[in-house]
Amino acid sequence: MSIYEKAVKKPISVILIFVGVIIMGMFSLRYLPIDLYPEIDPPIVSIFTFYQGASAADIETNVTRILEDNLNTVNNLKELTSTSKDNTSLVMLEFEWGTNLDEATNDIRDALGRVESYLPEGVEKPIIFKFSTSMIPIMLLSATAEESYPALTKILDEGIVNPLNRIEGVGAVSLSGGPKREIQVNVDPRKIEAYNMSVEQIGAVIGQENINLPGGNLDIGSHRYPVRVEGEFKSSDELKHLVLGNFQGRIIRLSDVGTVKDTLAETTIDERANGRVGARIVIQKQSGANSVEIAQEVRDRLPVLMKNLPPDVEIETIFDTSEFIENSISSLANTVMYAGIFVVLVVLFFLGRWRATFIIILTIPVSLIVSFIYLYATGNTLNIISLSSLSIAIGMVVDDAIVVLENITHHIEKGSSPREAAIYGTNEVGLAVVATTLTVVAVFFPLTLVQGLSGIMFRQLGMIVTLVVIVSTIAALTLTPMLSSQMLRLMPPRKKGVAKAVFGTFEKFLVWLDNIYEKTLGFAVRHRVMVVIVSVIIFVASISLVSLVGTEFIPPADNARIEATVELPMSLRLEKTQKVARDLENIWQEKYPEIEVISTSAGVADEDNIFSAFGENGTHVINFTMRLSNSSERERDIYQIGDLMRQDLDSVTLLKDYTVSPGGSGGGMGSGASTVEVIVSGYNMEETGRVADHFMEKLENMEGLRDIDISRDDPKMEYQLVLDREKLGIYGLNTATVANAMRNRINGLIAAQYREDGDEYDVRVRFSEPFRESIESVENILVYNTQGEAIRIREVGSVEEYMAPLSIERRNRQRVITVTGSLYDASITDVVNEINAEVDRMDLPQGVGIDIGGTAEDQQESFADLGLLLGLIIILVYIVMASQFESLRSPFIIMLTLPFAFTGVFIALFITGTTLNLISMIGGVMLVGIVVKNGIVLIDYINLLRDRGMSLVQAVVAGGKSRLRPVLMTTLTTILGMLPLAIGIGEGAEIWRPMGVAIIGGLTVSTMLTLVLMPVVYTMFGANRMKSERKRIAKLEESI
Amino acid sequence: MKTVFITYNQALTEKIEHILDKLAIRGYTRWPQVQGRGTKDGEPHQGTHTWPAMNEAIITVVEEDRVAGLLEHLNHLNDKAEMQGLRAFVWEAEIGV
User: What class has domain A560-662?
Assistant: First the structure.
C-alpha cells in the first residue's frame, strides 16, 4: 500500500501525526532564543606576550618572530598577523571559518609550550585570548550624575552592577570611566629635603601606621581575651596628623611636608554621555543566552533599581542590540505574514473554492513549523537568517499541494468518488511532485556545504528550506489527499451572489488569458527563428547591464548607530582633548537632531588593560558612540549622517585623523561599510612607509572611498632619563634605584590601602604638582644611596628628548603597513581596479610587495565559492531532471530558461538600483531550482500529449494552454511570497531586499520566456524526436 | 468476427504492438505477466529463478478478412526468432455489447 493510500484510509492517524508535529513546533518556538544572526564566532585567536622594558624592534625579533615561526604550523591557519609595540607583542591567528577553535587553541598551547624556553628571560607567559560573539556587549548604558559624581562608581557598583549581574544569562556587567576615589599625599620636595626625608620613607611610615594586627590571647582570671592593635586609619583626616619622625627634637607631621587630599584619582579617561560626566555600564551575555530576554529583564529591573539611587543619577541606554533584533525579527515575522496572505489570495482566486484553498493553505503552517523543531533540536536561534528562510519557503510549500489537489479535483469532476480520486489523483502526479521537490533540494542542500563566512551564513537557510520543502511534499502526499477525500465533492455551478461576481469575473479573465496565450504561442511556433533571435538579443543586452550594476559584499544596514574615532596630535593633554570632544558633541547635537544619545570617551582606560592592546588609545584619542532614533523615524540614514559628520570633522583644524563608522565597527555582519585594504609589505620600513603614504594620498583622492587610515602611527615623542653607569658606580647607585626613585616621585608610590565600609582606596604619595611639570624637577630629584647620602639625578644622568619607535605590524611573517578605506556609494570592483592600475603605474622599490585585502578579499573568496556552488547546483538539477524524464534532451530544453533568469536578475537589480552582492547572488543561485519547476511542469505535459499521438505543434500549443494556470499559480505564489522581502519593510529587512528583488526579477522574466521560448525550442528539438521515432519504426519493420 | 488469441514472450511486446498498429487493429485486451509453457519444446516462461522469462497474452476480435494478414505477420515474426516463443489461436466470436 502506498503512502497516500494509507493516509486516505487512516484519516485520524494522519491528522494526529500532524497535530503532534504542530504541538512540538509550538513547544520549540516557545523555548527558541532570539538573536540577530546564527552564532558566529570569528575564528580568531590572539596571543599577548608582555616583555616589560623592551622596545618594539626588540619585541619583534625576540618574541613575535619566535612565536610566529612556531605558530605557523598550526592546522587550518589562514592568516597570521602581529603587532609589536613597546612592552607587548600581539600575535593574531585567523583560521578558516568553521574551524574547531577548541582544537586550534590546544594546538596553539602546544606550540607555545615548545617555544617558551626560547623566549628571552623576563618575558611573561603568553596569554591566549579567544574572541567570541558573546563578548560583544548586548547593552551599553551610560550613567550621569551631578552632586553624586564623586561617589558614582560605588553607587553604581552596589546599586546597578551587582543586581544586574544576578540576572540569568548575563555574562558580565562592567563599569568603565567612573571616578575612582584616591587619597593623595602630595609632598613638597624642598621641605622633605630640608628634613632629610625621602618619598620612600614617608610611604613606609604610612604603610607601617596603617595596620591592624592581632596580638594573641590574654588569660585574665578564668577568662581568655584576644588582644590586638588597631592602627588602621579611621578617616583620611588622620593622615594629616601622622607623625613622620623627629627632626632636631621636633616632631614632623605629614601636614608639615605636604598636603593630604581625599579626592578622585587623576583621570586618564573622560567618559561623557550627552556632554555630562558619567560612567558606562557594559553588559555582556553568556554564550548561548537569549539577548532579547536578557535585555528585556535589564530594562524591567532598571526602573526599580533606579529608585534606590540618588535622584541626580540618571541612566540612559546608549545602545541595546535587542531593540534592533526585536525590530528586525518582528518586521520579518510581518514579512512572513504578508507573504502568507498573498499566497492565500492567489490560491483562492485561481481555484475559486474555499475548501480547496483551505486544504492547500494548511500545508503552510504544517511545513513551516518543522523548521522551529529543527532550530530547537540543533541549539540554534530564531534569527534573521532562519526567518527569512521561512519567508523564502512560504511561496514554495504550496506548490506540491496545488499540483496534487488540482489533479484530484480533475478526477472528481470526471465522476470519480472523492476517496478513489484522492488515491489515484495523487498516484498520477506523485512522482512529478517528488521530482520538483528534488530539484529544489538539489539547490538548497548544497548551500549547507559552502565554506567560508557565507557558508556559516547560509547553512541555516539551506537546511531550513530543504526541510520545509521536504515536509511540504510529505504533507502534499498524505495530508492533502486525505483531506481531499474527506472534504472535496463535486460542486454544483455557483449560485448568483457576490462570490459568483468576484470569482466569475476572475475566471473570465483567466479564460481570456488562456486564449491570448494560445494565440501568442501559435504565432511564436510559426516564427521560431525570430523568437530565438529576439531572445538571444535580450540576453546579450542584459549581459551588458552587468557593468552598470555595481557589486559589493554585503549590503549595509541601518542599525541606528554611528561610531567615530577622532585622533588629535600625539601626546596632547587630556584637558585639551576633552575640550575638542565637548565642541564636537555640541556641533553634532545641534546639527543632527536624530542623535538621541552621544557617548564620548577620551583618553585611555587603563594602561594594563588587555583591550588597550587592540585598539587605538592615548590621551589624544576620542571615541564617540552615538545612538540615533529608529531608522523608520528619520529621513537621513546613518551613512548620510556619517558623511555629513566627516564634513564637520574636515573643518576642525586641530584633528590629525578621524574615522566615522556608521553601524559601528566589528558589530557583526550586515552592519557597517565594507573596506578595502592596501597592504604594503617589505622589511625596510622607510621604503614601505613611503609607498604607503603614496597610496594614502591616492586613496584619499579616489571617488567612493572614505575614512582612509594608515596603520602606522606617527612616532611619539617622549623623554628618557639617560644614566651614566660610571657615575652611578662612583656614587654607589644603580639604574633600578634611580628609576624607582623617579617613578615614586612622579607616578607616585602606593603606600597603603585606606579601608572604609568594606572598600579599599589607594593612598598615593608623590611630589606635588608643580614639581612634576618640568624636566628640571626630574633632574633635581634626590636619590639616596646605601650610605644614606643624597645625590641629585643631575649628577648621574640627563633627561633627553627621544622619538619612540613605531609599532611594527606583520602579516604572514612579513612586515606590513596597511592603508584602509571604507567604501561609500561605489562598487568594490571599480575601486580595486583603480588601485591595481595605480600599482602598475608605480615604480615599486626592491623588496616591497602590494596586496589588496579587506572585505574585498572576503568578497572574492565568497564569490568564487558561489560560482562553484552555482556550477554544482546546475549539474545536480540536471541530473535530477534527466532521471525524471529519462532523457538528456528535455532537461536541456528546460535549462535554456536559466540564462534568462539571470537576465531578469540583472534587469531587476538595475531598475531598483540594487547592487550585485552576496545576498542577491544567493538569490540567483536559488533561482536555478525555482525556475526549472515551471519548465518541468510544461515539458512533462507536452511530452505526454506527444505520446498520446498529437502532432508536434498541436501538442506544444495545447500543452502550453492547459499548463498556463498551474505555472502562473506557482509562479505568482513564489513571487508574491517574496514581495514583502523585496520591498524591505522595517528595520533589518533591507539586508534581504536584494535577494527578493533578484528572485522576483529572475522568476518573472524567466517565466515569461518559459511560456514562449521553451515551446519554440521544444518544436526545434522535437523534429529530432520525430526522426528517431521513424528510425525505431523502420527497425521494427525490419525485424518482423 | 474472429477472436485471435496471441500469447508470446514479453520480449516481443513492442513488435506485436507494431504489427497491430500497422494492420490498424485498434481494439485489444492484454494480460501482462502471464506464465506459460510450450506443448512440444522451448523453454518454459514461468517467472521463477529457473525459468525467469514471462509471457504476455493478447486477445483481439477482428473481421474475418484481416485474420490471414495478421497470422502471416505473426508467423513471419515467429520464424525470425523461434526460440522466443509465440503462439496464436483463432476462433469464432459471437457479437457482444
Answer: alpha beta
